[in-house]
């Protein structure tokens, strides 16, 4: 505790004064952000919920649930909301059954354990073509059927809350509840909007849509460099996507952000905070522009941070803070599972685990008790089972367990032998002015605008000093973990989304001293909190370019289509491609990699697919480019006419024909041309051909006479996987008989692989017979035959083998 007017209290006030001066200077350099749709939506939500709270005397949380139900119906999103709610209930029941009351935790940990388990099972099922909606419907139904008693008790508890009137709580707490619920409305409404985010459409929505269409994921790192990265959050999104589509996936992401607010509340209460300070901590977090950015598009940091927060609190409870020694061991086991799920969600977890290990070792005496050997063994097994699968899979499929990172160490043939580096834009390390730059020079840390990190960082030094001097050991541990995680992560790359767990932890640190009237006067704390929340709200969209709330896009499908056509036409282009690409063939994409929902593989000429990009760059002639496209069985090309060098664009336009145009996006079809591979296909001479005696060649008539024992042949090179047309023009030489269209495939050693043969009956008239063939995967050449099918001779006047 910090008694007023002693030296420690003076130090805290001095730090606060210095932070205020720095903040005032920083604000003097800012241009006021224009009012955005997020701020307007939030203000409207505050007004509606305030009025409802005053007139109905119901708890704001209950009113918020009712308002969200009405909004889901009005926006025609009731089914996605129901699916996400069923997923949450099923995961909670499953998690409760798995933990079997062995650990003292609340429903949020049950939900996370169940969700992580569901996601892990989906990731394993993704290897085989069994992923259908009925399977996931059955998967979610099973825990609800088996745990119907718990489900019934949960329903009765929820009904009791809905029927309850607002209890006599301080007006400040009610006001904070209204604000928190207003942010919840904002986060849900933005989830109802169509997806326009880069990372989401390139990966996090692409994976669920691919899984739904093909019923399995390819794990093909040569086509998508991120195909074997940890993707637990994407597997969780895939479950609800399979049942209710894009909105359900986005809504589950927003739900994880709201779950984080609840976890922050729990951690604040655990650290000795009051009910009011717990509300302030949640509100500070939800008002942070980065938190809104995570919900404005389908990112994975909210799910990852939820696992990290739960695992961190479990680690903190493995200490003398937990009186019961058996409970400490249970929390240690739980921490292994939760941190394993975090590891399976994002590899950045590896940067934070050493910090948690140090905290754990500092509490060694608290958990080094009888039974610890078994607990450590089980905890390690839980960490491995929950977290190691994507790394083992990546190691097996690519030779690099963290592909494509650290490839200078692992030397996977699918990536150059140098380490994959994050963008140099964001820099590395921490300096004395890092907090200031995060606030007022945010573009150095994220693809956003000034204020993207939120303005709570200006108060963090004051809160940190207050915690250090207060003697609150729980708060001190939270501070050390948050700062250590940020330091370790920034050592690799100073990117804000990678330190999202620190944002959550520091929300607790900010709320504890500023909401304690024994440290700061109540009026000063309220003013500081109000100014902070208002400022964050004014800059709520500073960390994202995707968080618009468009009423017409929410209210009708036509408005949704118009919004996408104007905002991101490539999404409508994907629909056009799907209508034409009935064979699900690969599509060459020479535009932004925003192809979620595409029927077929997307071949990106970028670092996503270096092999394809290098081959495209090396194709310096229209013929070479055509061969390259045909080798990958490409028929359709999506081209951004303003994104390519002119020479490459000209070659693409030469070999294709435009079918549809949306702004600068051009959907084109590869021209159908047949390049003859045979020498002297019209038999003008025998150059290139090998005859078997006694076959004859009539030079005057340019006709070959052959039978099954005396064929004429020619060997040509082929490209594996390409389609070829093999045709002959033949007639009977004497009497009716049968002939062959024949191609013998050979490997690079000249050994026979297989033969493609079709027979035909000849007539006295010249007739053309044709066979379509695909070169085997290991074929490098083919032998083309002019041959009969019997000993009776046939005459050939031309043969063709065209690509």
Describe this structure in words.
This protein is α+β, with helices and mostly antiparallel strands and 803 residues long. It has three domains: 378 residues, no CATH class; 102 residues, no CATH class; 113 residues, Sandwich (Jelly Rolls), CATH 2.60.120. The chain is 55% helix and 12% strand. It is built from 31 helices and 15 strands. The strands form three sheets. Strands 2-1-3-5-4 form a five-stranded mixed β-sheet, with helices on both faces. A five-stranded antiparallel β-sheet has the order 6-9-14-11-12, with no helix packed on it. Strands 7-8-15-10-13 form a five-stranded antiparallel β-sheet, with no helix packed on it. A hairpin with a 4-residue loop joins β7 and β8. α14 packs parallel to α16, α14 packs across α24 and α23 packs antiparallel against α24. It is elongated. The mean pLDDT is 90. One of its GO terms (molecular function) is mannosyltransferase activity. It is found in: Endomembrane system. Keywords: Glycosyltransferase, Membrane, Transferase, Transmembrane, Transmembrane helix. This is Glycosyl transferase. One of its GO terms (cellular component) is endomembrane system.
Helix content: 40-55%
How many E-type strands?
A: 15
Q: Label the overall shape.
A: elongated
Structural class: alpha+beta
Q: Terminal Cα separation, in Å?
A: 82 Å
How many structural domains are formed by the residues?
Answer: 3
Most strands sheet: 5 strands, mixed
Unreliable residue runs: none
Strand fraction:
5-15%
Lateral strand order in the biggest sheet: 2-1-3-5-4
Query: Helix segment count?
Result: 31
Average pLDDT works out at 90
Whole-angstrom Rg? 33 Å
